[in-house]
Specification:
heterodimer, A: mainly beta, six-stranded mixed β-sheet, four-stranded antiparallel β-sheet, 53% strand, globular, B: mainly beta, seven-stranded mixed β-sheet, 11 strands
Chain lengths: 113, 117
């Protein structure tokens, strides 16, 4: 079985400050990890993924995520938040043998001017 | 990049009506598509996995006869909400992967807001 936890319902950060959105996972075997962003009344957009290799993955819009195997985490980060980053963020995992992803429940990111 | 188009974006209809939602992969072939329902508190619920040329695989608790899924071609999957009732009102989203590989990201449609009066 595979699962994803996003422990924070909401993250608030001031514009210009660094942001972190947390994600931990549980999976049998090697995980394939993904981050998606959802703007109001839209579908999800792919931000970045970790498959193998470098633990620090860079993605769209200046976001990056760090894979930490020992902590089974894949936190999303950005050095300097923008108001336009305010959205809903989903972490997802797929195990190597499964094509069905499991999504976290989502974290609302609110960036204050 | 891979584009998934979902139509209609919004539907408002009377109770008892059947509503069809289309999900198309515009620039790639998708042997597998997924249908989700998103609730007001934002969580995504996987309803079913749609497989081209075969029956959909429904998640536990999802009524097959209520939510009919057809995946007749490599670029089109449809979800029909039959005899819709107010409790079926929700945001429905489809997605597809370029390949049925675990390391491929999902590409999502823009969702359909269904409101049953």
């Amino acid at each position: 079985a595979q699962s994803v936890a996003q422990p924070e319902d909401q993250v608030n950060v001031a514009e210009g400050n660094p942001l972190t959105v947390k994600c931990t996972y549980s999976v049998s075997g090697n995980p394939y990890l993904f981050w998606y962003v959802q703007y109001p009344n839209r579908g999800l957009q792919f931000l970045l993924k970790y498959i193998t290799g470098d633990n620090l993955v860079k993605g769209s819009y200046g976001f990056e995520a760090e894979f930490n195997k020992s902590q089974t985490s894949f936190h999303l980060k950005k050095p300097s938040a923008l108001v336009s980053d305010s959205a809903l963020y989903f972490c997802a995992v797929r195990a190597g043998g499964s094509y069905i992803p499991t999504f976290g429940r989502g974290t609302s990111l609110i960036v204050h001017p | 990049g891979a584009v998934v188009s979902q139509h209609p974006s919004r539907v408002i209809c009377k109770s008892g009506t059947s509503v069809k939602i289309e999900c198309r992969s515009l620039d790639f072939q998708a042997t597998t598509m997924f249908w989700y329902r998103q609730f007001p508190k934002k969580s995504l619920m996987l309803m079913a996995t749609s497989n081209e040329g075969s029956k959909a695989t429904y998640e536990q608790g999802v009524e097959k006869d209520k939510f009919l899924i057809n995946h007749a071609s490599l670029t089109l999957s449809t979800l029909t909400v039959t005899s819709a009732h107010p409790e079926d009102s929700s945001f429905y989203i489809c997605s597809a992967s370029l390949r049925a590989d675990a390391n491929q990201p999902q590409h999502f449609g823009d969702g359909t807001r269904l409101s049953i009066l």
